From TrEMBL:
<feature type="domain" description="N-acetyltransferase">
    <location>
        <begin position="13"/>
        <end position="182"/>
    </location>
</feature>
<protein>
    <submittedName>
        <fullName>GNAT family N-acetyltransferase</fullName>
    </submittedName>
</protein>
<dbReference type="Pfam" id="PF00583">
    <property type="entry name" value="Acetyltransf_1"/>
</dbReference>
<dbReference type="InterPro" id="IPR000182">
    <property type="entry name" value="GNAT_dom"/>
</dbReference>
<dbReference type="InterPro" id="IPR016181">
    <property type="entry name" value="Acyl_CoA_acyltransferase"/>
</dbReference>
Amino acid sequence: MPPTAHQDHTARIDVAPLQRPDHADYIELLELTTVSGHLPPEVRHVLTLLAAQPPSTHGTALCLTARPRRSTHPKPAGALLASFPDWAFHHPLTQNNPALAQVLSRTVLLIYGVATAPTRRRQGIARTLLTEAEDRARTAGYGMTTLLHAPHLTDFYEHLGYTTAHHVTIALPDAAMGLTQPQPCLTAVKALRPDIHIRKLPGAPLPVVTGLLPGWDLPPTARFEDGHLIT
């Protein structure tokens, strides 16, 4: 797929799937998003794999790079890594329900990291990478994107249409899947279709995702009591 051009307020950015000559620069950029400064070894392995199915570009991962147009610097200025969420298979509600795990892994795209070179920040690169990832996920039939972020980035993600909180609940047909992050991390979620809603319910102080799949919506009388979803 050829690079996608996005117009933003300060520069024109070209986004494209990661290419082999950019592997080292891609890893270096994404390491900026880690506390230790090092990515897990399996990330390097993923970069050697053929794409499984859209929106992935390498194995089950979506790996994108970004460059400002007309830049004289050949290295990518931004990088994004996304894949299925690990909680789709490790959450208590899915560990004994492989069918549900598979559905969630094909419905929700987790952005594991998005990074911009320090000298290229505030040029719309991260925003453009996120928009491209969302577009690819939407085209592939995904219903939601999600990511973890530090509190100081709340305004940035909310400006892009994300809802952020320490705890987010996904309404399932007969249960509620809670996603809680340790302080100070926040979860950000964004619906990719108009039939998916992120809203407050009585008794639930934090956001609830409804309509992620047909039949996963809630009646108007839905509420939470003592942490349990009552429909």
